[in-house]
């Protein structure tokens, strides 16, 4: 009877909760419950932020995010007012993966790298919350959604299933999967991309949803298609793909297809029932193309939400004038692109920042660093705290821990008597 009640409750949740309107699950509640462990494990960060993100996506303005490469970058983004963090596989490949290597975006890094960065970012946000709560400062909700890049799933259905679970355990609110072949995966703005069949791509989305259901977390799933630019596919068996086949084979045995927005629309419509948001990777910031894609999806799925990559791979000034750039975000939102993000913002910011400081320091010595420090001071009134780096990372918090242990009699406080306390 207990099992029957649980099945009934889960079915009721899927059928009556508007969160799941239009979402297909080709498996039963009974199958999900059979795959759950006997002990219910709570994934608080993932659940809270997934629910928060879904609420944000209903608002009258777009949810925007910058790709962050470190926990500290994420703190700064939230402090500045952004409502989400993007965790990019490209950035992980380029400078923060568990192999300790610098790679191009071709799924060369270990599969645990993005989950580790998600966990690291969440740890930084938790610490920042602890620091602020100690000071009775609770105006900022530091637990923002982290949108994680699952690439093409690093393999087949089971690989996607396990990666999804790993990302949920790390605290991701949303995860996106793309429809490229994992073993030949490329950055969406590289050549040589190979699509998997529509059926295989759908199955990975199903694997991701099943993983989230087993862990009982309402993770936001984003389906990305690279079909706008990809001109190869692994097989010709799926009827949904056959109208795009050219009849030509590559030297590797793949099938050439007609890349373009029509193929991307076909993929987006195929994925719409299995994902919460649809993302079409594009070659340039083209509002007309974005509108064409959005209209085609909305015609059949009027409530389907869309995502847009405002990529640093585009030369923005070469493509759009200032007036269009200033309203680009809002015009996309009017079309239905409720989540917009700059994938590699952290990587570019980190590199430009260090390069310009190094050039200035080489030329002007400590005068250059003093000027840099003045820039930090000037942002303090806007909420920038990192100029006081000891306090920023939690020295005062651990002083409080030590004093609690020592019943208020500790003489080893780190901030007291520090240069930061004397000079800042």
- End-to-end distance: 65 Å
The computed structural class is alpha/beta
Percent range for β-strand residues: 5-15%
Query: What overall geometry do the principal axes of the alpha carbons give?
Result: globular
Mean pLDDT equals 96
The low-pLDDT segments are: none
Q: Main beta sheet, described?
A: 8 strands, parallel, barrel
Q: What is the succession of H and E elements?
A: HHHEHEHHEHEEHEEEEHEHEHHEHHHHH
Name the strands of the widest sheet in spatial order: 1-2-3-4-6-10-11-12
Work out the helicity level.
Answer: 40-55%
SS summary, helix count: 17
Number of strands: 12
What integer value in Å does the Rg equal? Answer: 23 Å
List keywords for this structure.
four-stranded mixed β-sheet; alpha/beta; 48% helix; eight-stranded parallel barrel; 424 residues; globular
What do you see in this structure?
The protein has 17 helices and 12 strands. It is 48% helix and 12% strand. A hairpin with a 5-residue loop joins strand 8 and strand 9 (255-257). The radius of gyration is 23 Å and the shape is globular. The strands form 2 sheets. Strands 1-2-3-4-6-10-11-12 form an 8-stranded parallel barrel, surrounded by 9 helices. It has a 4-stranded mixed beta sheet with strand order 5-7-9-8, with no helix packed on it. The protein has helices at 2-16, 29-35, 44-56, 71-80, 89-95, 113-134, 157-170, 198-215, 261-271, 287-300, 316-319, 322-335, 345-364, 366-378, 389-392, 395-405, 419-423; strands at 63-67, 84-87, 146-149, 174-178, 194-195, 220-225, 232-233, 245-249, 255-257, 277-280, 305-309, 337-342. The protein is of the alpha/beta class and 424 residues long.
């Amino acid at each position: 009877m207990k099992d029957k009640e649980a099945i009934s409750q889960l079915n009721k949740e899927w059928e009556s909760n508007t969160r799941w309107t239009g979402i297909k699950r080709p498996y039963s509640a009974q199958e999900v419950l059979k795959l759950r462990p006997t002990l219910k494990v709570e994934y608080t960060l993932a659940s809270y932020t997934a629910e928060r993100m879904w609420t944000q996506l209903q608002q009258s303005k777009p949810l925007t995010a910058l790709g962050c490469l470190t926990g500290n970058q994420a703190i700064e983004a939230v402090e500045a007012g952004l409502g989400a963090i993007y965790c990019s596989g490209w950035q992980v490949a380029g400078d923060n993966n568990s192999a300790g290597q610098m790679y191009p975006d071709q799924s060369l890094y270990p599969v645990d790298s993005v989950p580790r960065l998600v966990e690291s970012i969440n740890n930084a946000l938790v610490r920042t919350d602890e620091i602020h709560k100690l000071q009775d400062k609770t105006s900022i909700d530091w637990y923002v959604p982290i949108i994680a890049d699952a690439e093409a799933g690093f393999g087949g259905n089971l690989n996607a299933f396990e990666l999804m679970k790993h990302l949920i355990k790390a605290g991701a609110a949303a995860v996106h999967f793309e429809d490229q072949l994992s073993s030949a995966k490329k950055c969406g703005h590289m050549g040589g991309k190979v699509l998997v069949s529509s059926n295989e791509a759908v199955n990975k989305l199903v694997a991701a949803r099943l993983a989230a259901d087993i862990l009982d977390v309402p993770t936001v799933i984003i389906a990305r298609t690279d079909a706008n630019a990809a001109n190869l596919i692994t097989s010709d068996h799926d009827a949904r793909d056959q109208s795009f086949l050219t009849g030509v084979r590559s030297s590797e045995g793949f099938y050439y297809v007609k890349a373009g927005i029509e193929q991307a629309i076909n993929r987006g419509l195929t994925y719409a029932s299995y994902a919460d948001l649809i993302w079409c990777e594009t070659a340039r910031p083209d509002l007309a193309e974005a509108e064409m894609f959005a209209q085609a999806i909305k015609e059949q799925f009027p409530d389907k939400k869309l995502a847009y990559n405002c990529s640093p791979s585009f030369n923005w000034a070469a493509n759009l004038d200032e007036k269009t750039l200033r309203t680009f975000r809002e015009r996309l939102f009017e079309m239905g692109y409720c989540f917009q993000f700059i994938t590699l913002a952290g990587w570019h910011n980190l590199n430009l920042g260090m390069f310009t400081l190094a050039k200035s320091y080489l030329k002007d010595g400590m005068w250059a660093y003093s000027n840099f420090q003045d820039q930090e001071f000037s942002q303090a009134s806007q909420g920038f705290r990192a100029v006081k780096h000891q306090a920023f990372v939690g020295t005062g918090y651990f002083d409080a821990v030590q004093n609690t242990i020592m019943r208020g009699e500790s003489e080893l406080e780190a901030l007291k008597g520090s240069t930061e306390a004397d000079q800042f």
